[in-house]
Design a protein that fits this description.
By secondary structure, the protein is an alpha/beta fold. It has 13 helices and 15 strands. The protein has helices at 5-9, 32-43, 54-74, 87-99, 120-129, 174-183, 203-206, 230-234, 259-273, 282-310, 335-343, 357-363, 381-396; strands at 20-21, 81-84, 107-111, 132-136, 138-139, 144-145, 156-162, 187-191, 210-213, 224-228, 314-315, 325-329, 347-348, 351-352, 370-374. The strands form four sheets. It has a seven-stranded mixed sheet with strand order 2-10-9-8-7-3-4. Helix 2 packs antiparallel against helix 9 (259-273). The chain is globular, with a radius of gyration of 21 Å.
């Protein structure tokens, strides 16, 4: 199927502002249907969860629908979908629960390609129990993650790896890494926050034991979801209040859930699925939508990348398999100044290191902040032209 960009954009009231948004990796704009789903949930009869009054059932339905939607999105079991305030929060919580099974001398593998939300929680959890850290590096020239040979050992208990770098767009070979980890009995924790904004995840195909994503990166409200097999969650025992349920996945969800946010996240999944014809299951429609979106985004990425190179920019996003996210620096100019100049043209392309702390150190850029151009499904040819024209004017000044 072809992607109808104009029809897709029509769902976003905020795009009427005229801002050309290249800040999608930090959070996308929100479609009307997501806001409406949140409002409907809030103003309908709503109480704490139970199966008595209609208000109680509405809360139950919001939770159940969230789990079903994210099971379809991630290719997972709805009984293993955990709601979280953010991917950072979920990773911290899970790292503490998992670390209870570690002993001094055990090893944890993290990568220099990851967002720090999938690095620091593991470093701190390992330090608390005396476990060792091993690093999986990447090549700054190619932006490709190194092979896991020699890094994953018989002492490895967990490998934390991104499905796609939020800084460079690199998509590591997850299955190869997971197979190496599973061969020594280690768990695989995958940060899918950036990946899920551009590609349909399949946690089983990845070999991911735990997979986390953030709906606000793909048109939803600010929250997160984690997918894992229910029996794996049963084996983990997070800290919780004494009277709180011990049922999975609820044992990982602290306090009363925000039903309106869960309803908005469900609506975001349905919004993506609605970009495809209505026949088939939600998972099948999601697959068709993501395929069409990928074709659209990669075409725009090629235009943007070629344009940046023509302007003399250095583009660091070079991996063979990558998302439509470009990190670049400009000859003799500071990226933060380019960002500020583009704002005067109503173009938003942020500069920074975007919490990819280890990747920033590894790249060792002359300019400490790179310009990140993040394309989204609602991006257009005209917006890419505005970006490149604005940068050309900035460089000529």
């Amino acid at each position: 199927m072809s992607f109808d960009n104009e029809a897709f954009r029509a769902g976003f009231p905020s795009l009427d502002s005229g801002i050309a948004h290249f800040d999608g990796p930090g959070g996308t704009q929100t479609p009307r249907v997501v806001g409406e789903a949140m409002m409907r949930t809030l103003i309908a009869p709503l109480s704490n969860r139970f199966e008595g009054a209609r208000s109680e059932q509405n809360a139950e339905d919001a939770v159940a629908n969230f789990r079903l939607a994210f099971a379809d999105l991630l290719g997972a079991d709805p009984g293993g979908i955990v709601y979280g305030r953010s991917a950072t929060q979920l990773t911290y919580d899970l790292s503490r629960a998992i670390a209870k099974t570690w002993r001094p001398g055990d090893e944890v593998v993290v990568t220099r390609l990851d967002h720090d939300a999938n690095v620091s929680p593991w470093l701190q959890a390992a330090a608390a129990v005396g476990a060792e850290i091993r690093w999986l590096d990447f090549d700054p020239e190619t932006a490709e993650l190194d092979e896991p040979d020699g890094v994953i050992t018989e002492q490895t208990r967990l490998v934390a790896v991104t499905a796609a770098s939020n800084l460079l767009g690199t998509r590591p070979p997850l299955r190869r890494i997971a197979d190496a980890a599973h061969a020594v009995g280690a768990l695989v924790y995958v940060d899918g926050v950036h990946y899920t904004a551009h590609h349909l995840p399949d946690v089983a195909a990845f070999g991911a034991d735990l997979f986390v994503c953030s709906p606000y990166k793909f048109f939803g409200p600010h929250c997160a979801a984690l997918a894992a097999a229910p029996d794996l969650l049963e084996s983990l025992h997070p800290d919780k209040l004494a009277p709180a349920t011990d049922v999975v996945p609820e044992r990982f969800e602290l306090g009363t859930l925000p039903y309106e946010i869960m309803a908005g996240a469900t609506a975001a999944v349905d919004f993506i699925a609605a970009a495809a014809p209505s026949d088939g299951t939600r998972r099948e429609r999601l697959a068709r939508s993501y395929d069409a979106i990928d074709e659209h985004e990669q075409r725009l990425r090629e235009i943007a990348e070629n344009g940046l190179v023509d302007l003399g920019a250095t583009v660091y996003s070079r991996a063979k398999s990558r998302t439509p996210t470009l990190l670049a620096t400009l000859p003799g100019r500071r990226s933060v100044d380019a960002y500020r100049f583009l704002l005067t043209k109503n173009v938003l392309a942020p500069a920074g290191f975007f919490y990819a702390h280890q990747a920033q150190l590894r790249l060792d850029l002359d300019d400490p902040d790179g310009l990140r151009v993040g394309l989204a499904p609602y991006s257009t040819d005209d917006e890419v032209a505005r970006l490149l024209d604005g940068l050309a004017e900035f460089l000529a000044d």
